[in-house]
């Protein structure tokens, strides 16, 4: 099998399927990335992925796009896992997927023999209906190359892995979803995923599910919608708890207690109920925006999704308001951002709340200093507004306020007394993740503001 695209999704897919026994060819158009991967280096921070790569090395090979035709002669299934960069309205852009689809068509039409038919599987998160578009583009490519007899089938196999736990999520998924109207495609993917679905591969990783992983088969549009609906639901769940958190601040309730109390109901579930600065990343913002854009395209309103996005935006503003309440003017105030990546265990800054907050703070005249155990270098290049330092206490030195933006262990474990000794009045901590021990922070002489943690949050 082959994979086009070696980002989080493509690489985790290729490496995990190689790990469970398949021979995998991975393609990327970035030659530097390909060269690094051949030496076992991954171009982003993802715990365990390098190890998985090393363990699968004999079965996993990397090449540039120029080898597409050669790879197509070898593989029966080709996954497309290229990026879908955000367009002006925040929704997913299809240009990379379209380019790859045309190139597959041209290669299929232009040289022989190929395994017949080729199964083209889309893993990139593309707007619902894109599978048909991909199919048209592959056909056009085949026609352009004059190879009308070349056959292919299309399937959608959305990816649900989370950054930071991509290895675990690929080997032990909650479900595998395949959408297609082709029996050949379904059979090929069933065989490919069998070791993961049956959990029959040998592994050092524990715990693994005791039962088989559900293999969900459906039509193309439903598979594509499952991905969007899953992410939009989770984003809405977080916005819901953030709305509750904001009400908690007015009535003196503690949102952590409330989340615990409602999460014990199986119908609600305890996960994704952490209130704070709101969701970010490369998926939730784009997927919610894409689903809203889909509604607009059909002249259909999506008030719940609109509200989920609006609540999320407001959480960022609440950080600024909490700072203003105790600092008053932010002009010339030094504000430390603790954690810059959009969540812990990744160096990804896409959709990171830190960048949004930093840009507002800078516009209000504050001096912003940022610390992140992993994403610091990337932030220094991307956000010249932020003075990046590589030690959390260095960030706190002389700061009037600090914002916990990302709940890295290094941030959770900060010594409040040491922080208090380094900070300048009013020594405010805005805990955007409710990650710190509020009592210990206050005891150390710092001013503490969380999110939804009773009257004192506000
Ligand atoms: C998400 C989906 O979880 C994954 O299934 C999909 O394939 C890709 O998108 P990811 O973007 O890696 O994964 O991050 P995730 O762990 O889901 O967190 C998303 C955002 O929500 C982060 O900004 C995180 O900080 C925030 N979040 C999460 C909260 O604010 N509160 C929570 O309770 C949980």
Automatic annotation (TrEMBL):
Associated pathway: Nucleotide-sugar biosynthesis; UDP-alpha-D-glucuronate biosynthesis; UDP-alpha-D-glucuronate from UDP-alpha-D-glucose: step 1/1
UniProt keyword Phosphoprotein, yes or no: no
Signal peptide: none
Active site: residue positions: 283 (nucleophile)
Molecular-function annotations in GO: NAD binding; UDP-glucose 6-dehydrogenase activity
Binding positions (NAD(+)): 28, 33, 84, 125, 163, 286, 350
Keywords per UniProt: NAD, Oxidoreductase
Superkingdom as given in the UniProt entry: Bacteria
Any single GO BP term: UDP-glucuronate biosynthetic process
Enzyme Commission (EC) number: 1.1.1.22
UniProt-annotated binding residues for substrate: 160-163, 227, 272-276, 280, 343
Enzymatic reactions: UDP-alpha-D-glucose + 2 NAD(+) + H2O = UDP-alpha-D-glucuronate + 2 NADH + 3 H(+)
A Pfam family that the UniProt record links to this protein: UDPG_MGDP_dh
UDP-glucose/GDP-mannose dehydrogenase C-terminal domain mapped to chain residues: 336-438
Alphabetized PANTHER family for the sequence: UDP-GLUCOSE 6-DEHYDROGENASE TUAD
Family per record: Belongs to the UDP-glucose/GDP-mannose dehydrogenase family.
Protein name per the record: UDP-glucose 6-dehydrogenase
Organism of derivation: uncultured Rubrobacteraceae bacterium
């Amino acid at each position: 099998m082959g994979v086009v695209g070696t980002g989080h999704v493509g690489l985790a897919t290729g490496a995990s399927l190689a790990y469970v026994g398949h021979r995998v060819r991975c393609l990327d158009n970035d030659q530097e990335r390909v060269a690094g991967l051949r030496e076992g280096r991954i171009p982003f921070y993802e715990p365990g992925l390098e190890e998985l790569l090393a363990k699968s090395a004999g079965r996993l090979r990397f090449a540039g796009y120029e080898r597409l035709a050669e790879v197509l002669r070898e593989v029966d299934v080709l996954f497309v896992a290229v990026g879908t960069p955000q367009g002006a309205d925040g929704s997913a852009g299809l240009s990379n997927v379209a380019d790859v689809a045309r190139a597959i068509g041209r290669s299929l039409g232009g040289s022989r023999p190929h395994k017949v038919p080729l199964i083209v599987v889309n893993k990139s998160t593309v707007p619902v209906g894109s599978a048909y578009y991909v199919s048209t583009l592959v056909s056009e490519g085949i026609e352009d190359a004059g190879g009308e007899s070349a056959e292919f089938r299309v399937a959608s196999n959305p990816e649900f892995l989370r950054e930071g736990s991509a290895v675990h999520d690929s080997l032990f998924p909650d479900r595998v979803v395949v959408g297609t109207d082709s029996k050949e495609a379904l059979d090929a993917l069933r065989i490919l995923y069998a070791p993961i679905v049956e959990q029959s591969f040998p592994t050092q990783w524990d715990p693994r599910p005791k039962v088989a992983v559900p293999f969900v088969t459906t039509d193309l549009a439903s598979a594509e919608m499952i991905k969007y609906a899953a992410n939009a639901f989770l984003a809405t769940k977080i916005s819901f708890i953030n709305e509750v958190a904001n009400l908690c601040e007015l009535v003196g309730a503690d949102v952590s207690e409330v989340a615990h109390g409602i999460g014990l109901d199986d119908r609600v579930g305890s996960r994704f109920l952490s209130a704070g600065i709101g969701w970010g990343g490369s998926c939730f913002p784009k997927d919610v925006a894409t689903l809203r854009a889909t509604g607009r395209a059909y002249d259909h309103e999506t008030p719940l999704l609109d509200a989920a996005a609006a609540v999320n935006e407001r959480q960022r503003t609440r950080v600024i308001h909490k700072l203003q309440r105790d600092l008053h003017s932010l002009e010339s105030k030094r504000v430390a951002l603790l954690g810059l990546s959009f969540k812990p265990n990744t160096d990804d800054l896409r959709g990171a709340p830190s960048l949004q907050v930093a840009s507002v703070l800078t516009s209000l005249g504050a001096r912003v200093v940022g610390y992140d155990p992993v994403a610091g270098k990337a932030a220094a290049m991307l956000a010249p507004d932020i003075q990046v330092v590589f030690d959390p206490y260095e960030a706190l030195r002389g700061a009037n306020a600090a914002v916990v933006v990302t709940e890295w262990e290094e941030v959770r474990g900060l010594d409040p007394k040491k922080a208090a000794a380094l900070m300048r009045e009013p020594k405010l901590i805005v805990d955007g993740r409710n990650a710190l021990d509020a009592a210990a922070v206050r005891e150390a002489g710092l001013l503490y503001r969380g999110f939804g943690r009773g009257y004192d949050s506000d």
